[in-house]
Description:
mainly alpha; 3 helices; 0% strand
Amino acid sequence: VGRVIGQGVALASMGTAAGLLGAWIMSRLLSQVLYGVPRFDILTYAGLSAVLLGVAALASWLPARRVARIDAARVLSDS
């Protein structure tokens, strides 16, 4: 279960990092158009990153927990 959650969170971390980089680049490009909006709001980026990683951990844990309860010997003998 831990390995599945770790892999899911690792993939989500890479995606979040790529998204943060893209958001930073786009905020620099759009800063001249948007008035009254800070270029880099660390609280917003950190909060959204935490939410996304939490959702990824939950989305990895639910199916992993379900599969961990299945008896592998029984499943293999039925097929």
